[in-house]
């Protein structure tokens, strides 16, 4: 039996300037427990779509008598340009950004405790009054992501990879059911990027967390996400198995822009495979070779 639908987004559009759509009638759904990548060349609308589903950017209102909607398990996140600002719904959605969104001068422990705000009484949350039990929960989350020893440091004393792991720990204590990540590894070195992706995959696999993650390089989608949605000029250009995202296929979608979706090392290996006759193999065998090569490079 298939998993229930976590996110149902229908007919969503967004324009910041009249007549210049950033999102153009986008429809997609995410099932509970999926880990789905969102890819696209620069300016394709990835960040706007991520923020719209997170309930941070209002979509456009009715157009031609139809209204866009985004629902989470049947509860509206936004409808016809109106956001649902309820705390209970917000607590079910964790959001991770490229720039971490930590308070630099506060301790890592306090930053992680902020993930509890949606479950605390409003006064306690506003004043940042966290109990010993709250701090134990935060410490457990930090231990899981490997930064417990940095709990009392200021957030700005951590490396970029450590700060992103603190942001993940904040989502862990939040108890989110859906984690939305907007290019969370774009500013990290390769080792830190793999560590962050491993953590997100572990949360997806072992906690049943639904993960929707915007990625700039397709290699990470191939390794970590069984399904990928590709945007082009604000429209869904592909929605299906990540294993289909070969350089040739992406070139059909994006043309020359597809080059920015691959790391240089991947392109070099791909050219090498072609020079050895991979292009002459039957399509199924060539796809298998590509998957093996991706796994080796991404490991």
How is this structure best described in words?
The structure is a single chain. The chain is α/β, with parallel strands linked by helices. It has a domain at 263-299. Helices cover 38% and strands 23% of the residues. The protein contains 11 helices and 11 strands. It has helices at 46-53, 87-91, 108-113, 122-127, 132-145, 160-174, 190-207, 218-224, 247-254, 264-275, 283-298; strands at residues 5-17, 20-31, 35-39, 69-72, 75-79, 82-83, 93-97, 178-182, 210-214, 227-232, 235-241. A 6-stranded mixed β-sheet has the order 7-8-9-3-10-11, sandwiched between helices. A 5-stranded antiparallel β-sheet has the order 2-1-4-5-6. Helix 6 packs parallel to helix 7 and helix 8 (218-224) packs across helix 11. The two termini are 32 Å apart. Residues 265-299 have low confidence and may be disordered.
- The separation of the N and C termini measures 32 Å
Summed up, the helix count is 11
The gross shape turns out to be globular
Q: Beta fraction of the residues?
A: 15-25%
Please trace the helix and strand order, writing H or E for each element. EEEHEEEHEHHHHEHEHEEHHH
Average per-residue pLDDT, rounded, comes to 84
Largest sheet: 6 strands, mixed
Q: Please count the beta strands (DSSP E, at least 2 residues each).
A: 11
Provide the spatial order of strands within the biggest beta sheet.
Answer: 7-8-9-3-10-11
Helix share bin: 25-40%
List low-confidence stretches: 265-299
What gyration radius follows from the Cα positions, in whole Å? 20 Å
The secondary-structure class comes to alpha/beta
């Amino acid at each position: 039996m298939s998993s229930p639908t976590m996110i149902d987004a229908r007919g969503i559009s967004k324009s910041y300037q009249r007549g210049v759509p950033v999102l153009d009638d986008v429809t997609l759904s995410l099932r509970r427990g999926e880990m789905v990548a969102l890819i696209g060349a620069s300016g394709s609308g990835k960040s706007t779509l991520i923020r719209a589903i997170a309930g941070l950017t209002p979509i456009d209102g009715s157009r031609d008598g139809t209204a866009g909607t985004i629902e989470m398990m049947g509860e509206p996140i936004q409808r016809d340009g109106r956001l649902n600002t309820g705390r209970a719904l917000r607590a079910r959605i964790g959001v991770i950004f490229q720039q971490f969104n930590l308070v630099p001068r506060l301790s890592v422990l306090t930053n992680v405790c902020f993930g509890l705000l949606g479950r605390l009484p409003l006064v306690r949350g506003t004043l940042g009054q966290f109990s010993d039990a709250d701090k134990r929960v935060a410490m457990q989350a930090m231990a899981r992501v490997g930064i417990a020893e940095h709990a009392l440091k200021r957030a700005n004393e951590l490396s970029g990879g450590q700060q992103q792991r603190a942001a993940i720990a904040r989502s862990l204590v939040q108890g989110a059911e859906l984690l939305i990540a907007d290019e969370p590894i774009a500013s990290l070195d390769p080792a830190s990027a793999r560590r962050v992706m491993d953590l997100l995959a572990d949360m997806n696999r072992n906690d049943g967390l639904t993960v929707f993650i915007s990625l700039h390089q397709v290699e990470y989608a191939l390794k970590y996400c069984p399904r990928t949605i590709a945007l082009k000029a604000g429209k869904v250009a592909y929605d299906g198995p990540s294993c289909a995202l070969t350089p040739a296929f992406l070139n059909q979608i994006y043309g020359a822009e597809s080059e920015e979706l691959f790391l240089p090392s991947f392109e070099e290996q791909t050219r090498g495979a072609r020079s050895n006759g991979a292009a002459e193999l039957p399509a199924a065998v060539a796809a298998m070779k590509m998957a093996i090569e991706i796994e080796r490079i991404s490991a």
